[in-house]
Every structure is written in C-alpha cells, then in structure tokens.
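Let us practice reading a record.
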Amino acid sequence: MHLYVIRHSQSTMNVGLGGGANCGLSEIGLWQAEQIPPFFENIPIKSIFCSPLKRAIMTALPLTKFKDMPLILVPQMSEMFFGKWTDYRDYSWESCETIVSDYLGTQFLQSHDTSNQWWPVWPETQADVRVRVQSFFDAEIAPYLGTDEHIVVFGHGQSTADLKQVAKPGDTIPVYNAGIVEFVLDSTGKCLSAEVHTDHLGPHVSD
C-alpha cells in the first residue's frame, strides 16, 4: 500500500502572524494547499484522513474537492497539546457538530463518538502523541497493508512526525509544510521505500 503523510500548509502562527491554537493558513499556506491536488491527479486515493484543527482542514479541503471525496476527521492526528502551550488548554474548542457544519464534506472517523470531545487532554507528552497516532495507524491504515490502496493523511508537526516513524522506524525525512512524504509498505507493514515530494511547492518549502 501507499501511505502519503502531509503536514498542514504554512500557518499564520508558523510565520509570526498570530491566530492562536486553532490558527488558519498564511497566504503562502493557502497557495501551498492548492498545489497538493495536482500531485494526486493520476493517483486513485482510497481515503483522505485529517486532523480536526482548522489549519489541517484548510490544507486538505482542496484535495477532497478535487477528488470529490469526504474528508475524514481523525482526533488522533491532532497537534500535540504540549504542556508549555497553555493556549491549547484555554482555547474554546469547537464541537464535532460545529466543525462538520463549518466545513462541508467533512465527517468524523466512524469510531469516534461525536457527542464526546475530540481534542486531546492537556497537557500531553510526545509519548502520548505516539500512542494515539499508533492507535490510528493500527485501526485505520494497517487493514490496507497488502493491498494496492493509496491513503492520504494530513496532520501537524508532531503527529505527522510520529506517523512517519510508525511507517518507517528511524525515518529522518523533514516534516515540511505541505510536503508529501510517500511510504510504500508491504503486507507486514515493512517499509519498502520512502520519498519526500516538494517540487509542487516551488520556492515555498519550509519545515
């Protein structure tokens, strides 16, 4: 199977323009998001998964619209709710119902009870993030091992870094904003190849 791991496009917080814990994308970030769909023009995608945070959703939506597919929101791929980032603790996070209403074409992972909160419990450690990302991989991605399916996952710096490590332990490919890291996995989950794609970003490649 092919697994494509994508960190959200450049956010306003990435470039010092504010926006807080649930910030949106910068102008460059919006442009980066629009460069992702052409990469997948001739790739038959099975599923598109995404963190429920705004910057990740905004990055993924151009691809789901291009492919006319639903965007499946995955709480496990959320940003790390790091202890020093008290704005993640204090932000009034939107309910599942509000997010799905605000972003047409989105739906939460079937296994998530939408009457419950989707965001992680603050504070988190890196180990906590790895556990939730691993659980997502085991439940939603591993069943496709041994097939020819193509799965796309959008996340954040920490959650995409962890998913890359799950796909290929010891992976050292940088986590670029809107960069596409493609893993080919065999039926046992062994990584046969890993490649980062950034040509679609032109001069706007940043980690």
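A brief commentary: Strands lie at 2-7, 45-50, 71-73, 106-108, 150-155, 180-185, 191-197.
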